[in-house]
């Protein structure tokens, strides 16, 4: 086993916390934000070039991209957390093996997922709420997106480990490159070549391929570990640790898929019995969820940005730096969430109008969806940071429970019950109900973990006396 032999201090243990968080969190926020903007950019151009039916089709396909992201982040964030903890403990060999195993796992999983989706695309789209009007567009868009899934998943996982290696700017540039290519070719394929939703999907995959090439090129440049053939031989225990560390990231993302599938079907069902019909609630709420994903990406970016800092210092037993990192991340996430809340509540049409020129009932429901569904979004930042904090200190089960609480435990029962009394708007009220209850649980977890950390700190001080 290779252990660190020098006393050369890591920047994770020496640099000022604020400067260190800015160095890691800002590029991480940009990377995840860019990843979310792939779908947003598609929706904007499709909204103007095809109409809200085209946007409804992309909303039906969106859950499969969330599943892909969930799997890649489980492996990538798990690999990054494992890498950071082992480096903090000075065990370079295990850190190297963790990184290599994560790369092999995400490659295999991405190929299998793409094959399954393309083979069963029609029933999968039905599961995600495709109506007869949306299905032809969803098949066009989804087939191309399915082919590109490996090129989306591999760089998403690699970028988590690149950030843990101390290369947050490189990870950011990788995602930015793909977004720029997507943004350039979206209008070309839609408005010049009149390829509709298929053109938007092709532009998306072109950007993903560029990010894939850029990310893979980093592998020989890893600074903290040097990969060898042995690192890429799968080890059951190592893979298990990676997946357990990353399970919270998986649940956070995968739960969005369950939420979207359930929400889409409920909106179509209850919407059909309202003045809005099926397609308007489904499309408008899909846009609200994707805009919410932008906010979530920023909040997760802040949280994941502190993950290697907290993971390293927790492993090195520098608990004061752990607590300070968490406090700064919580403050930053709440400021961002409150700003988003003000926009959603007082200027929702400024967001709605980006996605095409619609009017009447569509705009009415879209504004309603923003104001109700995202009513408690300021609470989301707190819960997001605490979930990633628990993941970083090696408490994956608690992290998973917290992530699961908002998206499944609280959301699903509310989504099934509230529409029975409130109709289609009852689906919207599930958002604030779930956010409020998850916030209460996250506060309880934080209070308990703070107490535990204080006890560990006191015990270690006694041992050193």
- The structural class is mainly alpha
Poorly predicted runs are: 1-7
* Biggest sheet features: none
Number of strands: 0
Mean pLDDT: 88
Rg computed from alpha carbons, rounded to a whole number of angstroms: 22 Å
Element string (H = helix, E = strand): HHHHHHHHHHHHHHHHHH
Specify the number of helices.
18
Q: Estimate percent helicity.
A: over 70%
Terminal CA distance reads: 31 Å
User: Which band does the percent of strand residues land in?
Assistant: under 5%
Overall geometry comes to globular
Please give the structural blueprint.
Elements: H1 11-14, H2 17-49, H3 52-89, H4 92-119, H5 121-127, H6 135-147, H7 149-164, H8 168-192, H9 196-216, H10 236-271, H11 279-315, H12 319-346, H13 348-352, H14 361-373, H15 378-392, H16 396-409, H17 411-422, H18 424-464
Helix pairs in contact: 2-3, 2-8, 2-9, 2-11, 3-4, 3-6, 3-7, 3-10, 3-11, 4-6, 4-7, 5-6, 6-9, 7-8, 7-9, 8-9, 10-11, 10-15, 10-16, 10-17, 11-12, 11-14, 11-15, 12-15, 14-18, 15-16, 15-18, 16-18, 17-18
């Amino acid at each position: 086993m290779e252990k660190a032999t020098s006393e050369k201090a890591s920047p994770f243990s020496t640099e000022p916390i604020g400067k260190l968080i800015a160095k890691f969190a800002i590029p991480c926020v940009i990377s995840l934000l860019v990843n979310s903007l792939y779908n947003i950019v598609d929706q904007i151009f499709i909204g103007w070039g095809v109409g809200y039916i085209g946007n409804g089709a992309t909303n039906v396909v969106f859950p499969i991209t969330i599943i892909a992201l969930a799997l890649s982040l489980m492996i990538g964030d798990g690999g990054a957390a494992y890498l950071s903890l082992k480096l903090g403990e000075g065990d370079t060999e295990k850190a190297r093996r963790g990184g290599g195993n994560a790369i092999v796992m995400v490659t295999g999983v991405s190929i299998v997922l793409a094959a399954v989706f393309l083979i069963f695309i029609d029933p999968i789209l039905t599961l995600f709420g495709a109506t007869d009007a949306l299905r032809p567009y969803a098949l066009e868009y989804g087939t191309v997106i399915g082919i590109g899934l490996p090129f989306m998943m591999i760089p998403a996982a690699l970028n988590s480990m690149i950030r843990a290696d101390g290369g947050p700017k490189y990870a950011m540039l990788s995602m930015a490159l793909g977004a720029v290519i997507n943004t350039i070719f979206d209008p070309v394929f839609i408005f010049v070549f009149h390829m509709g939703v298929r053109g938007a999907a092709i532009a998306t995959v072109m950007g993903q391929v560029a990010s894939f090439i850029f990310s893979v090129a980093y592998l020989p440049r890893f600074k903290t570990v040097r990969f060898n053939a042995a690192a890429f031989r799968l080890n059951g225990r190592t893979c298990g640790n990676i997946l357990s560390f990353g399970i919270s990231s998986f649940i956070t993302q995968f739960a969005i898929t369950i939420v979207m599938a359930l929400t889409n079907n409920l909106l179509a069902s209850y919407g059909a019995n309202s003045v809005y019909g099926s397609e308007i609630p489904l499309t408008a709420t899909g846009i609200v969820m994707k805009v919410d994903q932008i906010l979530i990406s920023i909040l997760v970016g802040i949280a994941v940005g502190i993950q290697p800092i907290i993971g390293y210092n927790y492993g090195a037993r520098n608990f004061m730096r752990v607590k300070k990192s968490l406090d700064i991340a919580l403050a930053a996430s709440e400021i961002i969430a409150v700003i988003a809340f003000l926009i959603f509540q007082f200027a929702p049409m400024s967001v709605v109008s980006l996605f095409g020129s619609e009017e009447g009932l569509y705009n009415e429901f879209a504004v309603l969806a923003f104001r109700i569904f995202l009513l408690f979004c300021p609470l989301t930042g707190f819960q997001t940071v605490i979930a990633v904090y628990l993941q970083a200190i090696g408490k994956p089960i608690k992290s998973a429970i917290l992530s699961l609480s908002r998206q499944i435990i609280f959301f699903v029962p509310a989504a099934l019950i509230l529409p029975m009394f409130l109709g289609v708007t009852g689906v919207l009220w599930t958002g604030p109900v779930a956010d409020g209850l998850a916030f209460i649980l996250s506060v309880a977890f934080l209070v308990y973990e703070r107490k535990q950390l204080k006890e560990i700190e006191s015990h270690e001080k006694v041992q050193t006396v």
